[in-house]
Amino acid sequence: MKTAILSVGTEILFGQIVNTNTTYLSQELQNLGYDVMYHYTVGDNPHRLKEIIGHIFQECDIILTTGGLGPTQDDLTKEMVCEAMNDVLVENKDELAKIELYFKQTGRTMPPNNIKQAYLPSRAAVLENDNGTAPGFILEDNGKTIICMPGPPNEMKRMFERKVRPILEERSDASLYYRIVRTTGIGESQLETDLLDLIDGQTDPTLATYAKDGEALVRIASKRKTKEEAVAAVDAMLEKVKARIGQYIYSCDDSPLTDVVANKLLTHNISISCAESCTGGLFAAALTEYPGISAVFDRGLVTYSNRAKVDELGVSEETLLRFGAVSHETASEMAAGLAQKTGSDICVSVTGIAGPDGGTEEKPVGLVYIGISYKVGGIYRTETTELSTKRPDRDKNRKRSLLAMFDCVNRAIDKMI
Amino acid sequence: MKTAILSVGTEILFGQIVNTNTTYLSQELQNLGYDVMYHYTVGDNPHRLKEIIGHIFQECDIILTTGGLGPTQDDLTKEMVCEAMNDVLVENKDELAKIELYFKQTGRTMPPNNIKQAYLPSRAAVLENDNGTAPGFILEDNGKTIICMPGPPNEMKRMFERKVRPILEERSDASLYYRIVRTTGIGESQLETDLLDLIDGQTDPTLATYAKDGEALVRIASKRKTKEEAVAAVDAMLEKVKARIGQYIYSCDDSPLTDVVANKLLTHNISISCAESCTGGLFAAALTEYPGISAVFDRGLVTYSNRAKVDELGVSEETLLRFGAVSHETASEMAAGLAQKTGSDICVSVTGIAGPDGGTEEKPVGLVYIGISYKVGGIYRTETTELSTKRPDRDKNRKRSLLAMFDCVNRAIDKMI
After folding, report:
1. What is the tens place of the pLDDT at every residue in A91-130?
2. Would the CB atoms of B19 and A19 count as touching at under 8 Å?
3. Are A37 and B12 an interchain contact pair (Cβ–Cβ within 8 Å)?
4. Domains and their CATH numbers in chain B
5. Of the residues A331, A382, B249, B361, which has the maximum number of CB atoms within 10 A of its CB?
6. What is the DSSP string of A375-394?
7. Is the overall model pTM greater than 0.90, yes or no?
């Protein structure tokens, strides 16, 4: 069924809030097998609100709205929905009693303008609000359906989960299932080239590649009569994708690389420490986002100055002089020195030139070395990797380096387990 | 001028990404004095894309689009803009050369489909992309203007800032000027109370308070005929605001606290090191975002385990046993130990329970101690601060702690200079 999401609120048009409601509803509708054709946002303006509802219904069957159900004068969604759907607002005694009770329970006096929230379209089915005072509703007219929910995300989500989703599930004539396949070491263009015949032949399942934060992803989606059929179709296609680009794939369920690595470390009880220069603590910060990681993460050293590299990691002054701080040799000594100091099963290091300045012809901005010492059979192996982005973007260089560190750790774990 | 923002991309309709581009552009357009009437999102569908452009131009004068300029087959924005604006795509030799150079510089072979990105509407003014391969453009037809930019936020923002904003500034018939005043140590509610009569009496300049990432901010804005008039009105109001809440203000130009601190450290050549537990490297990572900070940042230690706190910082086993890792005493010894080890002018430490688990009745999740040792007249002073959020949200607790660390450092610097 063709669906659109309409957000109502001047604060969204002003850019004062990020429209996360629409993202949430889009995901939910997709997963329920509904086609989301459009997102619209309009301010608290009666004329434009009414006009846009009419316009959307020219093509779509269902509109989900959020916002504009509040008690103030500029909350006009209900009024305009009535005009567009040939209905009138009437007082709903049950809802009025609930709103009065809500204020009583929270120990406040109900301001008179909250009475407005108990007025609902006469033919509407009420959607109770468990998290606030504004009820939502579903109204149908002439084969078209509008579902109106409040704007505050916690109220909207609760209402959607408890009242709206069951109704939409029942009405859906299809089930959509998808997997996001995540990769490292390959760009989006190359990924598309490798999968082009599968993408071009797409009817169902469909394949799409896209780029996100320096990674190339593949989305495999199928829409079938039942969930089982959709899952089977996606999984069969996933096998074909793996046969083509398997060596680049690190997760098939949209898990980020940090989670994949943290999870493996915890599962196999592999301890880890890190020594960072150009990433300045990003690796440690990303790893420690994961709850419970303290069981395996011993310590991180951000050895920004040369002196810190010598003091903390035992990098030799001679190595720094002869090869420079940004070199295979320094990265290797950083990792090995950290291993000697901590005894962690994996010690990963990074040193590079993040930019935007500080590069030379020989060692340009974006040149990065990653070192890793990891225990196999009780003995440390130490390896280094060179990375070169040749870009002056400090932020991107740091994030690329971070991703490459996690990639090195992930590949090391696979050799250890 | 009536403006609309049109986002193009099936991944947005699928809810795979949050549409932050639209939020950013809405804020920018508001600030430039443009009225944003609508937000629209449509998928990579030629028919609907063309239809919606025509529909928007019935009411609006300017459309800003993001997305659909990529090299793949489903990127169709340019084609449909040409159809809607009566133009044709032609190869742009300059842009083709740039794209070829971009691939050469990054050491990759250009896939043939990237040639598509060098095709632009024949009458368009090109907007160069400093962060990627897809150029944007401005095209006018019959009094209507469309401005097309790429979808990746870092490419879009750079293009908007450098190429689009100056053009829109020149065309705007009003001048809006604003300042964002940033504070620490005061909540939004209290801030509003302190400024209530200034906020209520608002016509121009207007005052608004809002909360963002744990900080309370004040926006002072004025829309006048000339920029000079708007600046004068805002600055006069800023003085009144300072008289009320001056002690909480740390920047009047929306500079984040990290930048304020990094800038002061560099200006006054104050060296710094940090020892982090619960923030896990966030402080070091945030500080090293600042280009050139290596001149003053010596090192960071992420002493996650107790053993690391003892080994690296000389925290005594007895302190850990008697007071626990999360205590005034441990925070103090971490900072003092780091000072002894590094001799940095400022050594800041943090230890706490980020959650979601790991709390006790005595030491609940969200309890955090910050230690700071800083040199005044060649002698270290050591101070500690307790912070308590009482929330199970790991991410929020880490970010609150980070902000409080920067606040401590900022206040220490003010005593040192």
Report:
1. 999 999 988 888 887 777 787 888 888 999 999 999 999 8
2. yes
3. no
4. 2-171 (3.40.980.10), 175-251 (3.30.70.2860), 257-416 (3.90.950.20)
5. A331
6. EETTEEEEEEEEEE-----H
7. no
